[in-house]
Amino acid sequence: MSSIEQKFAKLGTDHAPGQEVRQGDALDTALRGEPLPGVPVDFSHGDVNETAFGPAPGALEEFVEGVHRGGPQAYTEYRGAAELRDRLAERLATFTGRPVSSQRELIITPGTQGALFLAIGATVTAGDRVAIVRPDYFANRKLVEFLGAEIAPVRLDYLGHTDRAGIDLDHLESVFKSGVRTFLFSNPNNPVGVIYSSLEIASIAELAAKYRATVIVDELYSRLLYSGQTYTHLRAAAAADVDGIVTIMGPSKTESLSGYRLGVAFGAAHLIDRMEKLQAIVSLRAPGYSQAVLRGWFEEPEGWMAERTAQHQAIRDDLLRIFRSVPGLAIRTPEAGSYLFPRLPQLSVSLHDFVRALRVQAAVTVTPGTEFSPDATDSIRLNFSQNHAAAVQAVERLAQMIARYSTA
Amino acid sequence: MSSIEQKFAKLGTDHAPGQEVRQGDALDTALRGEPLPGVPVDFSHGDVNETAFGPAPGALEEFVEGVHRGGPQAYTEYRGAAELRDRLAERLATFTGRPVSSQRELIITPGTQGALFLAIGATVTAGDRVAIVRPDYFANRKLVEFLGAEIAPVRLDYLGHTDRAGIDLDHLESVFKSGVRTFLFSNPNNPVGVIYSSLEIASIAELAAKYRATVIVDELYSRLLYSGQTYTHLRAAAAADVDGIVTIMGPSKTESLSGYRLGVAFGAAHLIDRMEKLQAIVSLRAPGYSQAVLRGWFEEPEGWMAERTAQHQAIRDDLLRIFRSVPGLAIRTPEAGSYLFPRLPQLSVSLHDFVRALRVQAAVTVTPGTEFSPDATDSIRLNFSQNHAAAVQAVERLAQMIARYSTA
Fold first, then answer.
1. What confidence tens digit (pLDDT) does each residue in A303-325 have?
2. Do B113 and A49 touch (CB under 8 A)?
3. Cα B111 from Cα B115, distance rounded (Å)
4. ipTM of this complex prediction, to 2 decimal places
5. Where does the pLDDT of residue A30 fall: very low under 50, low under 70, confident under 90, or very high at 90 and above?
6. Mean pLDDT on A320-349
7. CA gap B235, A212 in Å, rounded
8. For residue B130, how many other CB atoms are within 10 A of its CB?
């Protein structure tokens, strides 16, 4: 294999969320039992149809106004329209509890995926090592590998705790001690939905400052917190070195605006500068007209976020009840976001075969845990931002499928 | 400087089209004469306002229908919605004269900039050398350098010919002989607007096949051909090795749809596969709702393209008349696209100072030639897709400014 072939061999996407259609329906293993009829549910991503969680109100209207604004909206600076950055910087400062300079510390990106790529591309070069939590968002590993860097994994014992996320802080420090200078993590964690405690965040801030490490924190789900939860933004921690932190957010999930491809990154000015240079050659800018949609972000109608959160919490609780009735299955209650990450009981088929059988026999699409950690060969991720009734029925089918394929 | 600092030092964007706002107005040199009043014209990109060249009809309507289609439109496969690829593959096959497999040979990208990044990222790795025409599109060089590869320049003597673009084919062969296996060029050429003759294209196809080189050809302007011009698509050349060619197009220019961020790449299936893997970590997909806009691409109303082309040709001819009246200025007649690339007479100030003076004193924004070739220290690029009258007056001011700063 040539070096470019090797590079891309690591970037497999067949099991990535949304790509299941490319797997085909061939199974290496015999199917057990009859098909389970029901409304198909694709838990690999949220359902943004109006029958589930449609886009935040006013988005399309802002877009259309943007189109009518014409040239200035189509051709913004690469880092995004200046006037829009002014608005957003203020709202993000209020939300996170620390000032944001709209001129120097903020860039608008094509989705949070774009923000992650740019942030990592601006920080990491070939031969570097990057600390990454296991499990965490599937693309992080691939981004690091594409840039010719290596992963230094950090354990997250999410099933062993209820009062904190469960990051192994000694492990993180030993990784920093070994020379790693970049740490990338999601909070709330994707795929588990746990929030790092204020003590965990304080420790991460202290360690990063002590070892002069850059921290890229993906806070995509930080607006969707369930009742009784509090959230600490890393950039606002007392020990935080703000010149070493980039925070990433976007309206693709809770606000269901993924179809517009919008994200933001804010923090360390020298990294935002580099991110803009990289944006210039990767895709020029976040889609110009779409940028206008961000005008309504953080300014949703009174009560809209609270209602959306309550709806998600109700689905979460119903699905947890079903999962907890499955013998041998372990699951932690998500504190934020819309993911469930159950650890399945031992199955008589491989995880990938089970996931495929689930899709073919029960019309239920989930993402295998191996996308999030090579160790997670017994877990699956579900995005439960779905039609409530359909999700409940789909997880009932899933429970039946587990019973069919369980070795117990 | 650390290696990542060095990497980004090469990616400067201050002189890139559309980024002039970040340069400030400070001048290293004294301004000559009084300000020249007039409607400001930004020739760094096309004017997509309705007073100049507004978006192709039906685009916003297709977008809105896409939003109403909901989830399937927001969450397409990373390479773009399958049904849309079916439509586009057929049209692109007809347009270029060779079949395109919608399943295997086509990807929808965030703009043609996104397509270029993905194509080069899928082909080139650190330490490679890449053949690039001088002058050519400014981001090509930066893309290659970001990936840790090197440039092997190939001369284009565009002022020395009228019957062909003027590529030095012996130079190209010597570059292939030296081990280069990737060639990247735009046709029509950006910034010059010349079309490679069918003989030049045949030779490029033969050389690439002989040396088993991959060719990435940016055909962004290939729909906007002036009267009497013919165009040869590289992928349709008799000697073309279709497994080694990726063609890039998009509706951002002639069709004025840049605000939707759409492009396509089609050709070599193994490279399209890699491009999708890279897309998955860079920005997931071209904006979902925007993709719907491509449904109308190549199906504009009867006569719309012909009229748009005629309007551009009329502007071109008026601007050429003004430029040709400037003593010491050399310019080639563009055969396609909307760029002019005059070589200025000798000035008493640096090119960058002149470009800045032009903006400050005459409200005329142009892009310095050095963005397109390190040798083009005496040239500027203008995108003349502008309001006709405003463009003529702006180029008249430009001619006055040349007279003020000329050493002649």
1. 999 999 999 999 999 999 999 99
2. no
3. 7
4. 0.94
5. confident
6. 98
7. 51
8. 27
- 8 Å CB contact between B294 and B108: yes
pLDDT at B4: 85
Phi, psi of B49 (to 5 degrees): -75, 160
The token duo for B87 is 């439509």
Confidence check: pLDDT of B28 > 60:
no
A303: left (phi over 0), alpha (psi -120 to 50) or beta: left
Strands (E), B117-269: 129-134, 150-155, 182-186, 214-218, 245-249, 263-267
CATH 3.90.1150.10 residue ranges in chain B?
3-55+303-405
Nearest CB among A4, A73, A283 relative to B111 is that of: A283
Residue A1 touches partner B, C-beta closer than 8 Å:
no
Question: Between chains, do B4 and A123 touch, taking CB under 8 Å as contact?
Answer: yes
At B215 the three-state DSSP class reads: strand
Yes or no: is domain B59-296 CATH 3.90.1580.10? no
Burial of A113 (0-12, 13-18, 19+ CB in 10 A): buried
Rounded (to 5) percent helix, strand, coil in chain B: 45, 15, 45
In angstroms, what separates the C-alpha of A408 from chain B's closest C-alpha? Answer: 37
Tokens of B298: 């190549």
Contacts (Cβ under 8 Å, ≥6 apart) of B40: B363, B364, B365, B394
Among residues B12, B150, B114, B281, the alpha carbon closest in space to that of A124 is found at: B281
Question: What is the sign of the dihedral through the CA atoms of A108, A112, A113 and A115?
Answer: positive
Pairing of strands B41-42, B364-365: parallel
What are the tens digits of pLDDT across the range B92-101? 999 999 999 9
Instruction: For chain A, give percent helix, strand, coil, nearest 5.
Output: 40, 15, 45
Residues of chain B positioned with their CB less than 8 A from the CB of A277: 8, 11-13
% of chain B beyond a pLDDT of 90:
91
Q: Which long-range contacts (CB under 8 A, 24 or more apart) does B7-12 make?
A: B7/A125, B7/B145, B7/B146, B7/B148, B8/A122, B8/A273, B8/A274, B8/A277, B8/A278, B10/B142, B10/B145, B10/B146, B11/A274, B11/A277, B11/A278, B11/A280, B11/A281, B11/B142, B11/B145, B11/B146, B12/A277
- Per-residue pLDDT of B246-258, as tens digits, reads 999 999 999 999 9
Residue A142: closest CA among A13, A37, A298, A305? A13
Rounded to whole angstroms, the Cα distance separating B84 from B288 reads: 11
Q: Which of A282, A290, A291, A294 is the mutation pick for testing B, counting most B CBs within 10 A? A: A282
* Range list for CATH 3.40.640.10 in chain B: 59-296
CATH class of the domain at A3-55+303-405: alpha beta
